[in-house]
Amino acid sequence: MQLDQLIDGLPVYAKDLKLNYSSLVRQNQELTPQQLWGTVVASAIATRNPELTEAALEEGAKQLSAQALDAAKAAAAVMGMNNIYYRFLHLTSNEKYSTLPSRLRMNVMRTHGVDHNDFELWSLAVSAINGCGKCVDSHEKVVREKGVSEETVLAVVRVASIVHAIGAVLDAERVAQPEAVAV
Where is the Carboxymuconolactone decarboxylase-like domain (predicted)? Predict the structure, then answer.
């Protein structure tokens, strides 16, 4: 299913999400197309909603180069791992864990092949969805030090929040009306 059809088909109670999606994605004026669509793709993957992920990947393939699409997927993948690990370090009171090496490979953080700030913004979006304060703080600091404005950071987080909420609505509708939602 196409992403626009999926959004347009959201239930009445999700009208605010439709309106926000329209203003933040369809009428985007804050992010470059690569920043926007990489954020949509990485965020959709982070929702773990198959319908939304499929539609976002399909649209992302039209909007992004193959390399940028792979990088957005890579940001979602590596942050899926890192957010769990670093959220654990943040939440535990045992400080010894922070002194031990992570021993997790994160080579894609250097080899993604797209604008460094864009990859960091996508990582920030996924970290916000996954609720990892340590990763949010780290990625926000990196992009701010490299000249990305606070307005751009917030635009990425707004897109991530809308995509995440859409995924939650689709999940709820699948449970409420399993026969009405195509998987």
Answer: 101-177
Query: pLDDT tens for residues 72-82?
Result: 999 999 999 99
Of these residues, 6, 114, 135, 159, which one is catalytic?
135
Q: CA geometry: angle at 116 spanning 32 and 40, to 5°?
A: 45
Residue 65 lies in a domain: yes
Active site residue 16: no
Indicate the number of domains in the chain.
Answer: 1
Global pTM value: 0.91
* Residue 22 Cα distances to 4, 8, 39, 81, 100, angstroms: 9, 10, 15, 31, 45
- Domain hosting 70: range is 3-176
Span 127-138, pLDDT tens digits: 999 999 999 999
Most distant CA atoms of the chain, gap in Å? 51
Summarised one tens digit per residue, pLDDT across range 54-103 is 999 999 999 999 999 999 999 999 999 999 999 999 999 999 999 998 98
CATH number for the domain spanning 40: value is 1.20.1290.10
132 a catalytic residue: yes
d(CA 31, CA 22): 14
| Choice among 17, 31, 132, 153 that is catalytic | 132
